[in-house]
Each structure stands twice: as structure tokens, then as C-alpha cells.
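Lecture 7 notes: from sequence to structure.
We start with the chain below.
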Amino acid sequence: MSPRTAENMTWHQAHHAVDGVMVHPSDGEAWKRFNSVHSHFSAESRNVRLGLCTNGFNPFGSFAAPYSCWPVILTVYNLPPGMCMRPEFMYEARGEI
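Predicted C-alpha cells for the same chain:
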């Protein structure tokens, strides 16, 4: 990890949210609730917070086909909004089921 990326990994702790505006998951109620329930984890801003995303689809357009694809993407939410959605910070699992 580069020194610049390492510095940005604590962005979510120093970020000040504007009421009613959500620009990052750290502005949301779920993040705040997690912080209150798991205060020991949230006390260290360098602990890595990850988002797991999936979205299944049938590549052949028929629900009767026995095949489907489920891309799985892991996102680092510690980073600022301009960085956390860049391809170099998103990790994709590949394989067949």
C-alpha cells in the first residue's frame, strides 16, 4: 500500500457529514449504529471496513436455464468516495458454481 493510500484509509474518521446529505457509507445510520455497538472496533480508525456486493443474473435470458452468474465485489469503505469506487480498490471474486 502506498503512503498516500494508507493516509486515506482513515478518511472516514475525520470526515464531517452534513445533516441530510449522504456522500459516503460513513454518513449513514447503519455505520453510526455499528460504531455504537462495536465501539472497541470503531475506536481504531485504521480497522478496515469492507462492503460485499452481489447481483445475480441469467446470462442466457431464460429462468429455466440451469446457469446463472453471481459476481461478488468487495469494496474498501475506509477510503474517500472518490477512491473507494475506483477499480483498483474493488476486488472481484471469480469462479463458477
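Points to note: The longest helix spans residues 29-37. The chain has a mean pLDDT of 84.
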